[in-house]
Amino acid sequence: MINPAKLFQIKSAWDTFSANHPKFAKFLGAAGKSGIGEGTIIEISITNATGETISSNLKLTESDMQLFQTIKEIAGQS
């Protein structure tokens, strides 16, 4: 069973994150509208304060898409 209080905490934390980083939230929205689906490759790079960068990528699978759909349903965005 999903704890509604925990969902509210996550929503509150996401709202704060989005306010602190509005370009990232817009990026995610645009990425979602472009048709992310099975086979899509997501790449991420992280550069720490000393300038070191690490990168990785993943190719979305059918089970990944099922996970995203479940999250959207929980968030009320089905």
Task: Describe the secondary structure blueprint for this structure.
Elements: H1 4-20, H2 22-33, E1 41-47, E2 53-59, H3 62-74
Antiparallel strand pairs: 1-2
Strand order of the largest sheet: 1-2
End-to-end separation in angstroms reads: 19 Å
Indicate the low-confidence ranges by residue numbers: none
* SSE class: alpha+beta
Number of distinct helices: 3
Q: What is the gyration radius calculated from CA atoms?
A: 15 Å
| Mean pLDDT reading | 89
Q: Find the count of extended strands (DSSP E, 2+ residues).
A: 2
The portion of residues forming beta strands comes to 15-25%
Identify the overall geometry.
globular
Characterization of this structure:
It is a single chain. It is built from 3 helices and 2 strands. It is of the alpha+beta class and 78 residues long. It has a two-stranded antiparallel sheet. Strand 1 and strand 2 (53-59) form a beta hairpin. Helix 1 (4-20) packs across helix 2. It starts with a helix and ends with a helix. The relative contact order is 0.10.
Summarize the structure.
The protein has 78 residues and is of the alpha+beta class. Helices cover 54% and strands 18% of the residues.
Features:
alpha+beta; single chain; 2 strands
